[in-house]
Each structure stands twice: as structure tokens, then as C-alpha cells.
Amino acid sequence: MAGFLVARGCASFIASDGGPLLQALTAAGVSHVPIQVGDKAPWAILVNAVRLARLIDSEDIDIVHAGSRTPAWVGLLACRISARRPPFVTTFHGLYGHRSALKRWYNRVMLRGAAVIANSDFIRRHIIEVYSVPNELIVTAPRGFEEAEFDPSAFGEADRASVRAEFGVPDGFPLLLMVGRLARLKGQHVLLAALARTTDLPWFAVFVGAGAPGSGYPAELKSALESSALGDRVAFAGSRRDVARLNYAADLAFSCSVSPEAFGLVSVEAQAMATPVIASAHGGSLETIVDGETGWLVPPGDIEALEAAIRAALADPGTLRVMGARARRHVLARFTMRRTCEIELSVYERILGVKITAAATKLVGRGETPTSARRRR
Fold this sequence. Notes:
By secondary structure, the chain is of the alpha/beta class. 41% of the residues lie in helices and 15% in strands. It has 15 helices and 13 strands. The chain has helices spanning 2-7, 22-27, 42-58, 69-81, 101-107, 121-131, 157-167, 188-195, 217-226, 243-249, 265-272, 285-288, 303-314, 317-334, 337-352; strands spanning 11-16, 31-34, 64-66, 88-92, 115-118, 138-140, 175-179, 204-208, 234-238, 252-255, 277-280, 295-298, 363-367. The strands form 2 sheets. The protein has a 7-stranded parallel β-sheet, with helices on both faces. It has a 6-stranded parallel β-sheet with strand order 9-8-7-10-11-12, sandwiched between helices. Helix 4 (69-81) links the parallel strand 3 and strand 4.
């Protein structure tokens, strides 16, 4: 979004403590301000709010946009104590814990601006049901994939052969791919259990992603793998930056979350590479996958249903290819990053009451933390 604004002649600042995306941001003409807006200590929130308020006034910032709760507290306070008092906007990305009144109060900072952007209709409904926010305050801007990065025409058979050779995929075996951090809620254990029931079929599976520091889940998965008959048919690839290439080489992708995905960008990126997806039928997947047309939806955590979907998918390679082409057309029409940015831009324009151009708006500021290529907002 920051680069999208810069391309339209607007100055764009990001306040964060840095991260792997910093070089790409500055190359796009985005100004970076080193403020640790993710520090949750109350005193740090106040100090960072004062620093951000000074930036707002010195740079004539017109909008502050936050994408998670602690940066939102910093941004909201900064807007209120600055002389300019610019509009405050948030993007609501996930299902924050909300069982206690204190948690809901803390989360409500995401709903105290001029508008809240939901990254799916699932999240829109969640905001309305849990926080009783008027529907008209919420705008749905589904997350999108980067068209230049996830473009099958940029790859070829050499890429496919290289990926298969890297993991030792036997000739004639379909390549199955699951991308996502190694966490129980992502459901890698569910997929392993389903695969253990399909050893009569030819396939090779690659799990991409790393576990959180201190998590015992990755070791649990590898222990389960060692005690099964799948040892030579499954590979754990760790964290990767070539997800588009891996999806290009894959025949079938998976999103097996046992908790609802707020949106599910992994499924969209796989479809962008013409790879059909088997996904859990809840959360954002209900919006991004057309069951039976661009992939398959199965009840979350249902190992037997997942097994049946795998068998159906691998029964006919020709059908997989047709579904993959249909899947790419589907996401190109609905889930590109350009479309996401255009919707967010329309929110800015409505709030400011102007068409955003270099002449109309000097700067749009954001309080966010660019920490990984998988979380661009």
C-alpha cells in the first residue's frame, strides 16, 4: 500500500522497528521512521505516541493507518495529541482473543477510528457480532497476491524440475505442498494423519514454514513422521522466500487450519499459480475457494474427509490442471494486491473528501511493523 501511494505522487511514511522488508520499502520511495510501535509496555506506548505525534505535525501527515493493536494504540494517541489531529484508520486482520471484558476493551482500539478495514467478510461479521460495530463503519478489502511475483508465465519446466530434484520427488509422483508456520492451529498434524491413510497412492509432500521459538510442535510433527510409514515421502523445508516457485512446481496445495483463517492468503497465492487447493471449510477459505471448481473444502480437522478429498484430487491429473487454470482466473478477478490497495485508497478519499493525488494529499502515514514477506501489511 505504501508503494501504491508513492506511485501516485503521495509521500508515505512507515513507523516501525525495521525488518526484512525495509530495503524494499525504501527502494519504493517510502520513508521509514524507526519507532518501536510494537512495544507493548504502557510507558513505551506513551513515549512512542509522542514521537509519532511530532512526526505527524512536522510532516503534515493526513492519515494514520494501523494494522495491529499495539501500533493502533500508539497511532490513536498520537492523532489525539498532535496539533493536526489527522483521521485514524485501522485494518482488522484477525480473530483477537475476546473472552474477557478487558480483552475486548483492548481490542476496541481497532474500532475507534474514522473507518475500520476488514480483510474478509468473515472478519466483517466477526466485528459486528462481537463488538456491535455498525456495518457502515466497516469496509471489506480482501487481501491480495502480488501479480508480478505470483505469475506462472515467469516460471518454466526448469523450475519445476529443480524443485522436484531438490526434495527428491520420484518421477511420476504428484507434489503436494502445504505452506504456513508450524503451529497446531494450522493443522499440519491433520494433513499428516490423512496422508498416512493414502500410502497406496503415489505422492510426495513438502511442508514449508518454521515454528515459533520455543514451540514443541515442529518436534512433535517430526516425531509423528518418524513413527509412521511416511518418512521417505514427506519433507520439511523450513522458511522459504520462493513460495511462488514452489507453488508452480506443486500439483496440489493445502490449507488445513483447525481454527478459522481470517483470510487465508496462502490459498490465494496457490490458486494464483494455477494450483488447486484443499482447505478447511471455515473462515476466509469459504470466500477464496470455490468448492469443486477451484479446489475442495472439507470440514476442519476431519481426517476422513481430507483423505477423501486427496483421493478425489489425485484421481485425475487432467482435472487438476483444468481446476488450476480456473483457480487462477478466479483469484485474478477478485484477490489481487492492486484491488486491495484501490479499496483502501477509496477509504482514504472518502474520509479526506478529496481525490488523492500529489496536489491533494502530501502524506499518508502508517504505524506498522514490516516483519516478514508473508505479512505485507
